[in-house]
Amino acid sequence: MKAATARPDPAHSLPERGISILNGMLGDYLQRRGNDLAIDMSFRHRGRMVELSAAGIRATTPVLSAKLCVLVHGFCCNESVWTFPATASARKNDTYGSQLQRDGGYTPFYVRYNTGLPIADSAGHLAKLLGDLVAAYPLPVDAITLIGHSMGGLVIRGACAAGPPQTAGWLAKVTDVIYIGTPHDGADLERFAHGATGTLRAIPNHVTRLIGDILNMRSRGVKDLRVGHPQSDQGPAPWLASARHYLLMGTLTRNPQHPVGRIFGDALVRVPSATSTPAGSSTAPEIFVFPGVHHLALAHDAAVYRCIRQICAGA
Amino acid sequence: MEKATIRQLRGLNDLVADAVQAGVTRTEQIHRSIARYPYAVLTRIRPVAAPVRTIEFVETTITGSVYWTVRLAARVSGVVVAQVLERLDALAESDDGDAN
Q: How close A73 comes to chain B (CA, Å)?
């Protein structure tokens, strides 16, 4: 057992991170071609896939509780994004999940998935995976807290809107959904890439067309970030009415009202996009802004964790 | 070597093969369309039109065969690497069997 804990987490290794980036950029192509680099959605524990059976869950997660938290990473990342950098205040390999386990008695599950697939597809896969988790979990599940960073928040929102039979068994147990730096109304960088691709391909020049074609090879997953929110039959997927929703976002500047902070947000997602609420939603989300915390740091920040702990303590 | 690593290497090999095929094909297309301009202009000049067409034919045949050779070499090396990985995979499989 000691050797297992001493082993470095393979999710942090350069090849694993590289494969996650590759999946983000070309994931739909990899899947279409049946390439072995395409990631299948699964729960991971220290880089290893968690087998969804009572024995498999017990083998990777010895301490089980009736409260689960499921963490879904963002575009081009894997579950290593949740790991705090080793500092005096954070233990080695600490994540929001491990801290919630220690402080709140939650059992954390980390999702790894192909972020290059359309968000709706990933949402469907997540809905099924959560169903399988609850069915295989050795204890009755009382509550599920869903935590999504960036694109992960959109995948969670889509999964909650997927509808039965995919959501049967787990949706009613979701009490809180925490969206961290999630571009509910789309990301400006993808809008820029979309505009640049169209312009470059329209110019009658071989070189610009080639650059435009290369840019256009980017995955469906990243292209979906232009719009952001996943779609349901009646437009943007609504918030899950039976759960509480929390929007956590960062800004580059210490003063959120600073023009740079207002224009660039957390470097990838602007505050108006991160706080967007679908029209007609019966549930009003709570909003928390973290000045001076950039997009990636939102996934492993002490102040953000204090906020999450507070949310979960109230659950 | 672990089976997961072999699978990743196989995926990487397939991806490189795809990238070389697509990259060479696209480069050939651009090369041809750029090279066509001077020939199109020169063939309008009657006295040189016939030799220019011959030169164009020779040039496109040579460059076409060069691109074809690059694609073939990439495919052959991809197949060789795939075979090596297949053998390694079989070895890893038998090691797992022995361990069990």
A: 21
